[in-house]
Amino acid sequence: MATFTLSLLMGGCRAFRPVSSLSRPALSLATSMKQQQQQQQQTRLLATTAPPAEDETTEAAADADTSIYVRDAEALAKVQSPFLQVMRDRGFLHQCTGITELDAKLMEKTQSAYLGFDATADSLHVGSLLQIMILRHLQKSGHKPVVLIGGGTSKVGDPTGKDESRVMLNEEIIGKNKAGISKVFAKFLQFGDEQDNDAIMVDNDDWLSELKYLEFLRDYGTHFTINRMLSFESVKQRLDREAPFSFLEFNYMILQAYDFLELHRRYDTILQLGGSDQWGNMVSGTELGRRVDGVQLFALTAPLITTSDGKKMGKTANGAVWLNADKLSEYDYWQFWRNTDDADVIRFMKLFTELPLDQIAELEKLQGSDINQAKIVLADEATTLLHGSECLAGIHETISNMFKGGGSASTEGLNRVTVSKSDLEGDGIRFADLFFDLGLATSKKDARRLIQGGGAKVSETKIESDLGKLTIDDFESGSNEVVLRAGKKRAGVVEFQE
């Protein structure tokens, strides 16, 4: 089959090689939605053909009533492509330019889609996992994922959702971050050049750094209006707060749109995927392709995921939930999913696992304390996707022994720090420092509060003073490690070396 390209968020060029029967919405719902649409005398955000940019609804309209499940329910019920069916039935969709035409394209042949990730940290966190899962479903449906690493756009900084300018990153830090975030994709996608749907990874620095400023302005600047750019929600929020908005950041949306055009030229990419907060930038990319090269491109967004209490997905009281094991242990990653709120379990199963929907429907019937069984399934499935199933036995044993009093405690899978025996034999090491080093506290001040509140233990003994220190006397005879506990469910190991 011929290869066709879908796009996710940023653009790229050089190909990296990392190592290594669905339910449909009820027709009655579709009919009801259609009647509601006929009563509304306004331009539809989701149409079967992409309207000119001037007629596009801006990001300000990207709230609940613009969801594709509401605005285009009838067309959505009729999609035939396996990818869109999975996206629909598992709750991944929010907006799309031309859902009917995109569906037809996906049924024609292997297509290629892209999703972009800026290199703003040396690891992605669980907030990016939704987008990675979309790429995984795309490939499993027979299409080609293009992972775009934003080496170029990271030099500018995406202003979306930010009250102030991002910290400027130098080339060395961006390079380190690119290496850090790139390795996670091989756990979810198959890279190579043997199959039509093998994923590739590209970096938009390959073309953005080669642009000549005056030529770029002349060739592409005429296709963007300040009026429209000022209507984007990310811009309006900053201006409403009278927060500084630099000319550098203002160019980010132009560069993102150009990425889409460049990816189509290089890889025949026709679809960009992303979060609903990127809708305005993504639609600008489809319009740039139409105006400059006369091609029809598509944009498809997923909803921004929040927990049932309205908090942003991927953040906890102890900081970001990182995807790289060197920043967050397999045990702590499992615990993050195990601690999911009851109201979020089923939704997260659909989004962050590959469990069949009929199995999820059975788990949805659980009530009361039995919901904890579903949480364990969620934690096991999500952890297996990222870290492999091999780590589960150690995690389960650790939990059973540490928190249920079974057998000799296993510490496999727990975060650990190594200290010198000589330090322990001297003045010792402050507990607050160790809790912070183990990731059991977000700061040393937070660690002291934990101790003062009575939630910190060394083995089974409560730590009484926030000035207390770990010494060699805290280790059992013949053992070179000791467990520090923060509350009932979080723990880490201090190990000494001679």
Could you explain the architecture of this structure?
This protein has 498 residues and is α/β, with parallel strands linked by helices. Helices cover 40% and strands 13% of the residues. It is built from 22 helices and 16 strands. The strands form four sheets. Strands 1, 2, 3, 4, 5, 6 and 7 form a seven-stranded mixed beta sheet that branches. The chain has a five-stranded mixed beta sheet with strand order 10-16-15-12-13, with helices on both faces. The chain has a two-stranded antiparallel ribbon with strand order 8-9. A hairpin with a 2-residue loop joins strand 8 (315-316) and strand 9. Helix 13 crosses helix 14 (279-293), helix 15 packs antiparallel against helix 18 and helix 21 packs across helix 22. It is globular, with a radius of gyration of 25 Å.
Strand-helix topology:
Blueprint (H helix, E strand, L loop, with lengths): L4 E2 L20 H12 L29 H4 L1 H5 L4 H9 L4 E2 L2 H10 L3 E7 L10 H12 L3 E7 L20 H12 L17 E4 L1 H4 L4 H8 L5 H6 L1 H8 L6 H4 L1 H16 L1 E7 L3 H15 L4 E5 L12 E2 L2 E2 L9 H9 L6 H8 L4 H7 L7 H17 L4 H13 L10 E6 H5 L3 E2 H7 L6 H9 L3 E3 L2 E2 L6 E2 L10 E6 L3 E8 L1
Parallel strand pairs: 1-6, 3-4, 3-6, 4-5, 6-7, 10-16
Antiparallel strand pairs: 2-7, 8-9, 11-14, 12-13, 12-15, 15-16
